Amino acid sequence: xxxxxxxxxxxxxxxxxxxxxxxxxxxxxxxxxxxxxxxxxxxxxxxxxxxxxxxxxxxxxxxxxxxxxxxxxxxxxxxxxxxxxxxxxxxxxxxxxxxxxxxxxxxxxxxxxxxxxxxxxxxxxxxx
Length: 128
Hints:
Layout: H1 6-14, H2 18-32, H3 38-54, E1 62-68, H4 73-83, H5 88-96, E2 100-106, H6 108-120, E3 124-127
Antiparallel strand pairs: 1-2, 1-3
């Protein structure tokens, strides 16, 4: 078996769909008994301290929270699926269980785009 270079491995990942990447990540975490979210939690920790000292301008990651699905639940489910790698059943459960975290640790730009998309579908959304 020939060893792949980093560039070759990245090329494989570039060709994968979001769902395929999610399945790979789950399998990787299980195989090596690791959690890919751990570095995010460590990186987010300083933002909390900066927020207390400097206010909102120091905050660099946001959670997109679906407060209420509104009257067009099917459209909201479609948007949730587009923003995440969730299947139909999981997205429906998130929407039905509102308030629910849709994205966590997102950049301000990504969080605002997600909020706009969900509100466009009729949902009530909060950024935290």
